[in-house]
Amino acid sequence: MKKVLILILLFLAIPSMSAQSLSEYQWENRLIVIFTEAEDSKEFQEQFEELESDITGLKDRKLLIIHSLPQKQRTILPKETRWQDSNLYQNRKGSEESFEVILIGLDGGVKLRQNQILTTKKLFGLIDSMPMRQAEMRRNKN
After folding, report:
1. For residue 25, is it within any domain?
2. Which residues form the DUF4174 domain (predicted)?
3. For the chain, give me the number of helices (H) and strands (E)?
4. What does pTM read for this prediction?
5. Considering the domain boundaries, does residue 36 fall inside one?
6. How does pLDDT run along the chain (142 residues), one tens digit per residue?
């Protein structure tokens, strides 16, 4: 009976373990989450290409890029991971549009939410104007 109970508890814990929590990135990384309804959406491809065009800028600003679909997610930049079960789409997507991009700051708060392609110029300008980023830049100068 005890073994059965342990197996049941492990079985119940597996889905939550595979669903990556955004809180694990807090104070370590800024996040761009790209929400789409399909893996191969045109908007996702455009957004990916825009972000991929400046990998150095992404790394310098401690950015991780996550692609979220209904029921699953994966990190796509700087390193691509496998799809994981997730309810991120249901919990964080804020609009009815089929494409949405959000920026989550180091503190875990949503700093930007939009339904158009986010340019690196706008993204980096916004991040570079934030107090924590300005402190990082001062530290890096010294």
Report:
1. yes
2. 22-136
3. 6, 6
4. 0.84
5. yes
6. 655 444 344 444 433 333 347 889 999 999 999 999 999 999 999 999 999 999 999 999 999 999 999 999 999 999 999 999 999 999 999 999 999 999 999 999 999 999 999 999 999 999 999 999 999 999 988 7
